[in-house]
Amino acid sequence: MNQPPTFNPNASEESLSQAPPIQEPSTNVVPIGGSAAIAGSAPMAGSSGRTSKQLFESISAEIGKIFVGQEELVLTTLTALFSGGHVLIESVPGLGKTLFVRTLGRVLGCQFGRVQFTADLMPSDITGAPILDVKTQDFRFRPGPVFTQLLLADEINRSPAKTHAALLEIMQEYNVTIDGTSHKVPRPFLVLATQNPIESEGTYNLPEAQLDRFMFKAMVSYPSEQEEARVLHLHSQQVDINTQLASKIAQITDADEINATIRNNAQVRIEPKLLAYINRLVRATRAWPTFHLGASPRAGIALVQGARTLASFRGRSFAVPDDAVEIALPAMRHRVILTAEAEVEGNTVDEELRKLIRSIEVPRS
């Protein structure tokens, strides 16, 4: 996917349309309206003493040993994980989504689960249900596959709406209620839901209200020629995937450090000018002429939370406009709908969002 343009707080409006691709912000950038005194203060990741930047770089490097390319998927997933969100992935089959989640679980030291959604999948198949214990002659709760930390919901749009609703409720509330009793799911809890953009027969489209529950929507495309050659080299030797994960991938962190990092990321500074800029971005989608439906306030919350996490990944204790712009497409592309006229003309949501971003004045220092 093409990256959106860089937004420099000191840039003129005319220069925005010709801005180069976004570069990783330097750790000595001064926040909007702030001072340079806090520029080198990076959030700590947890009891290990590592910064969030060091943790992010270590996780990304370890994933790259076995999972090739797909930088947008890796970045949006880690940003969502350390922001307490979830990710919807749109891609054709065979691009390594299951491998990515299993590798991520190994690196993070978290439990991994996978559910293949089908037309006959019931909510109890996900959440679990009471079963009769023959020994005690009483019912006891048997947890379903949702009681994990990294859940791959494969082809989520193949199951009916009531099954969607059961999963999305857990994503929001982090617990399952069965027979009046609440059962907490372990934290961190990340759902990666996939859907195939090509095949529509026998599918149930997620309604806008349910799509809005996902923090990001990642678009996974085919790898480049060099990346695909590396995939062939790494995964054509008929070595069991469990063996590869055990021999090549090391555990980098654990659930306690991840939860501590999520709490620390909430302390990253968001200046009022940046908050107003994010607010203008979201509100502009509701008046954009080619959008039939604009983004909800939840899009703004996702941008603020994601900008905080990205800032900590870059080694800063404050967020800048580039952080919000970098995740603007994943945060808003599933929350807006093109008009019929725009679709007929061949416009795409990402193209229109890029135009919208360029039209909003960036806050100056």
List the helices and strands and how they pair.
Blueprint: H1 13-16, H2 52-63, H3 71-81, E1 87-90, H4 97-108, E2 112-116, H5 123-127, E3 128-133, E4 138-143, E5 150-154, H6 161-173, E6 175-178, E7 181-184, E8 190-195, H7 208-211, E9 216-219, H8 225-235, H9 241-248, H10 255-265, H11 272-284, E10 291-293, H12 297-313, H13 321-326, H14 328-332, E11 337-338, H15 340-344, H16 349-359
Parallel strand pairs: 1-8, 1-9, 2-5, 5-8
Antiparallel strand pairs: 3-4, 6-7, 10-11
Helix pairs in contact: 11-12
Low-confidence stretches: 1-40
Strand segment tally: 11
User: What is the chains' assembly state?
Assistant: single chain
Using the 3D structure, state the CATH architecture.
3-Layer(aba) Sandwich
Q: Considering the protein shown, what is the CATH homologous superfamily? A: P-loop containing nucleotide triphosphate hydrolases
Percentage beta strand: 5-15%
Mean pLDDT: 83
The tally of domains stands at: 1
Terminal residue distance: 30 Å
Percent in helix: 40-55%
Q: Give me the Rg, rounded.
A: 21 Å
Shape: globular
Physical arrangement of strands within the biggest beta sheet: 2-5-8-1-9
Largest sheet: 5 strands, parallel
What is the succession of H and E elements? HHHEHEHEEEHEEEHEHHHHEHHHEHH
The fold-level CATH name is: Rossmann fold
In the CATH scheme, the class would be Alpha Beta
Tally of individual helices:
16
Backbone structural class:
alpha/beta
